[in-house]
Design goal:
By secondary structure, the chain is of the alpha+beta class. It folds into two domains: 170 residues, Phosphorylase Kinase, domain 1 (2-Layer Sandwich), CATH 3.30.200.20; 101 residues, Orthogonal Bundle (Transferase(Phosphotransferase), domain 1), CATH 1.10.510.10. It is 37% helix and 21% strand. It contains eight helices and 13 strands. The strands form four sheets. Strands 1, 2, 3, 4, 5, 6 and 7 form a seven-stranded antiparallel β-sheet that branches. A two-stranded antiparallel ribbon has the order 8-9. Strands 10-13 form a two-stranded antiparallel ribbon. A hairpin with a 2-residue loop joins strand 4 and strand 5. Helix 4 packs across helix 5 and helix 7 packs across helix 8.
């Protein structure tokens, strides 16, 4: 039986927050070849051109199972002749919970005043452009961080509302988020130190993550990998940079309290400001 992309959309709308699937009971029916994710009219064409374009480039041939799903996006384990990948498919902006992103869009280059106005007005054209810009920004920023030597998944490709990146895990088991683990004291402290170092490296290259916490940090063989980048801002072009940085640090420290790691957000914040200034970045 063919699986339509509308059925995949049901996974998007099923949960209001990200959920880590600990088993493969939520597999798609079999190992579904992407070419089978077609409309019911027998036309053998995709109901979304994003997957069609990626399949045509040989980037994604199969979607094996759901790694995590939520209101914003669903991440699948993808497969091609090159191996496994993580395939992040954003849901439609109209049903996404994260719509008030003006603070993050500030200073981003759009290049078309009419499109920018349409986005601000929330018209149909604006919503469509808003979605594409949001997703492409994630890919662009992930690529920037990866080339800067920061531990993020290697970006592979993007098309429309789909971002394909390196799969982080062992065999076909995805690496867990730190928020999902009960780490031993020593591991928790090590994870915190690594994460703090990552945060320092991100600000040193002029960026602020915008949602930095254990919920967006993977633990893979004792190494921390940071994920989720659409809300990243450029420090020099966003007047809310200090506010977002402070919020990131508070959220980060709070998320590690579960692991009994105590920290001083204000001290960390002051140190981050010093790193920014020492890097020659205007704030």
């Amino acid at each position: 039986m063919k699986i339509t992309l509308e059925e995949i959309q049901d996974v998007f709308e099923e949960n209001t927050s990200f959920e880590k699937f600990k088993s493969r009971k939520r597999k798609l029916t079999g190992s579904q070849n992407v070419n089978k994710l077609v409309s019911d009219d027998g036309s053998n064409s995709f109901t979304a051109t994003d997957l069609e374009e990626l399949r045509g480039r040989g980037i994604v041939d199969e979607l094996l199972y759901v790694i995590k799903s939520g209101k914003e996006a669903t991440v699948y384990l993808g497969k091609s002749s090159e191996g496994y990948s993580a395939v992040k498919m954003y849901t439609d902006l109209r049903v996404r919970s994260f719509k008030k992103d003006d603070i993050y869009r500030q200073g981003r280059f759009i290049g078309d005043a009419r499109i920018e106005k349409a986005i601000d007005q929330g018209s149909k054209t604006g919503l469509n452009a808003h979605q594409i810009l949001w997703v492409s920004e994630e890919f662009r920023q992930m690529n920037f961080l990866y080339k800067s030597g920061i531990p993020v998944p290697k970006p592979i490709a993007n098309s429309g509302l789909v971002v394909v990146m390196e799969f982080i895990g062992e065999e076909r088991e995805a690496a867990p988020r730190i928020s999902d683990l009960n780490l031993e004291k020593e591991d928790a402290q090590d994870a915190f130190r690594q994460s703090l170092r990552i945060l320092e490296r991100i600000v040193s290259v002029g960026r602020i993550h915008g949602d930095f916490s254990s919920y967006n940090l993977l633990w893979n063989n004792g190494k921390v990998i940071v994920i989720d980048f659409p809300q990243i801002i450029n420090i020099q072009s966003n007047t809310s940079a200090k506010e977002i940085l402070k919020r990131d640090i508070v959220s980060f420290c709070k998320s590690f309290k579960k692991h009994k790691v105590e920290s001083d957000p204000e001290k960390i914040y002051k140190n981050m400001l010093r790193i920014i200034y020492d890097s020659g970045i205007d704030l």
